[in-house]
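To close the section, here is one more complete example, presented without commentary so you can practise reading it yourself. The ligand is guanosine-5'-triphosphate.
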Amino acid sequence: MYNTSNMISLDTLPIGVVGIISEFSDKVVGSRLIELGLYPGKRIQVVRKAPFNGGLYIKSDKNAFAIGLTEAKSVFTTTD
Amino acid sequence: MTSKQIKIALLGNPNVGKSSIFNQLTGLRQKVGNFPGVTVDKKMGFCQINDEISANIIDFPGTYSLYPTSSDERVVLNSFSNPSSEDYPDYVIYVADATNLERHLLLLSQVKDLHIPVVLAINMTDLADKQGITIDLASIAQQLKVDVVAVNGRNGEGIDKLHQSIIELINGKGDNTSHIYIATSKEKKTIDQVKEITDQKLSNYQALLWAHHYNELPFLNESQKSSIKRITSENEFNYMKNQIDETLSRYNSISPIVNSSIKIQTQEGDSLSDKIDRIVTNQFWGPIIFITLLMLVFQSIFSWASVPMDFIDESMSTLNEFVKNTLPSAWYTDLITDGILSGLGGVVIFIPQIAILFFLISLMEESGYMARAVYMFDKIMAKFGMSGRSIVSLISGGACAIPAVMAARTIGNWKERMITIMVTPLISCSARIPVYAILVAFAVPDTPVLGGLLNLQGVAFMGLYLLGIIATLVAGIIFKIILKADAPTFLAMELPSYKMPHWKNVVLTVTEKVKTFVFEAGKVIMMVSIVLWALASYGPGDSIEKAEELAKTEALQKGLNDIQTEDYIASKQIEASYVGIMGKTIEPVFTPLGYDWKISIALVTSFAAREVFVGTMATIYSIGSAGDDIAPLKDKLTGAVNPATGVHEFTPATAFSLMVFYVFAMQCMSTLAVVKRETKSWKWPIIQFTYMSLLAYFGALFTYHIF
Ligand SMILES: Nc1nc2c(ncn2[C@@H]2O[C@H](COP(=O)(O)OP(=O)(O)OP(=O)(O)O)[C@@H](O)[C@H]2O)c(=O)[nH]1
Ligand SMILES: [Mg+2]
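Output:
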């Protein structure tokens, strides 16, 4: 269903580029993100990075989220 | 009049306005308890629904689903999956955010499957209007088979309709039989088998939750747990996969309902929150703004609070004076003034700091700013076992550990909260300043350094503060290693849109914090201060009277004037009291640190509060009447020579050793009382007292020997 060839982890998604969530490699983080409404198929965008190498500021629909850098490594997205 | 008492739960995702609606429903008829076995706040309130029906309303902590990842969320699961729990509700008011319905209906779909009658309150309708979102309530109600009410948690709009819906629920309207999630056949088998191991009547979804969480459900006994373990492994129950599949399947049912019921006039461009965040969470400006705000918080509890605190101080001593002059001079007058009233003063004095800190904190929480602070600082604080929110506690700790420890309440993760509470008192608070001041003035020369930019005494002061900060962070790392986590720590959270703080919620938070401090921690503080008073005023037999007689004759011989005589008597009395005896008894323990019995006495009395050290030393050195002026005490200490040996009693090495001792020692009964109240057990304050005392002892020992 998704094109896996261009799948990249969220921490490597360039700022401002819209990605589509495709899968999670960490189940705990994955289930929390799903509960937050960030489930596979949702469009998501990295807006900025936190100071001191901290987490990512994410937007999806009109909502904003904070995701830690390690946590972001376990989220995979595709870009079109 | 027949009256019926029912239990209603307020449930919903974090930050949807549950507490605001709770405040609308109950007003000031609220009290705070805690859920069984955990330190999570349970806010309960009373609401008269109509003439016949009164309701006990419980404001549950916000949770995203019935698959918990923190102790806050676990509370919800424990109460909702156990029909015999004391918190199991008869009815649920489910609060959802109108601006983000899809995600908020996930937990609702789970609650519906529990078959507890529920009404859906769609909150933040004002924000939805602004964003051009229109919601077809009837369509949602019909498709989800629930009663739907639009409300506004801020101005109370729709609350009367909510009352009406609750009455209808009670009258049996509402559907409690349908299932939103259809279990797979394997799950169905598990459900049927789990239902058999209990006499309770479980809904299917409750049985499924037992299968998922049996290991962490405190109400199951060991044999039930092992039965479920057997059942799940027989049915090849795959926890993570089942959970994710269930959640996605729920979205599959919810999404079409939401899409067919709401209309969004899409707005172009960035929202106000986006614009604010561009600056406030900026890599460079974000931390600067946050630190500036925290400095403001610090400044306000450190110096602005001193105005009301001085007023309380003066009023208490006026009252004290008045009682002393009105009542006959007898032991019970002393008990009232020096025991009870000064204990009461010791409680009331903290109210301004607590009120101001929580006023500012609730502004930060209410506005949505606190979530940004967590986003920016979580990474750094995680290194020390704490959360981004902990910074507020640590900075506040620089003024006073008491409100700072209370502020740790909002840290969701148990381990992070515990570490914050355990290490915050290592930050040098304002009560240490008078102690540092006298010791630094004594031991450090007033010479300029760095070409007059600073002086050596200032450098010493800074060194003491720095030592406290380093100890705080190191202790954090150590506790991070020792303490077992009850839930994984990870950062994945929503950044809510900014909102104007609502005054009613702010006022209620402040009142609640002050109330719990005064009535819960206050009891312990009163008791300890009465005991300390008794120990300092009484001695075995007539030792105090004898000491007074002897002191009077000696004073006559030395030709002291009236004030000197009084000071001299006070010094001999405290020496003869139980505290004096305790000081002399523990002296050998402190000799290696360079302390004699006089300092040991001051260590005992300053357990009440660190600043008492200065007053006690002054009393012992017969200059009790000098009040707050430290110069006479400094001179006394410089001149004090042991009559037997002829060496100085108080050397710079002793002073440095004492400084380090006070940086580390848990010399504050009020903080211990608050830690007891916040952790709901004596275990944590005892651990804290022990580790800080050991740190203080060995730190001071080391210091004494290098100087
Ligand atoms: N604009 C608007 N703001 C609201 C409304 N209801 C609540 N708020 C605000 O939303 C924020 C969160 O409200 P709370 O009542 O603390 O939410 P909660 O669900 O109790 O949050 P947690 O207990 O943290 O899960 C506060 O700033 C409220 O003032 C509403 O109807 N409209
Ligand atoms: Mg709340």
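Once you have examined the tokens, check your reading against these statements. The pocket of magnesium ion (ligand 2) is lined by residues B 18-19, 59 (CB under 6 Å). The radius of gyration of chain A is 11 Å.
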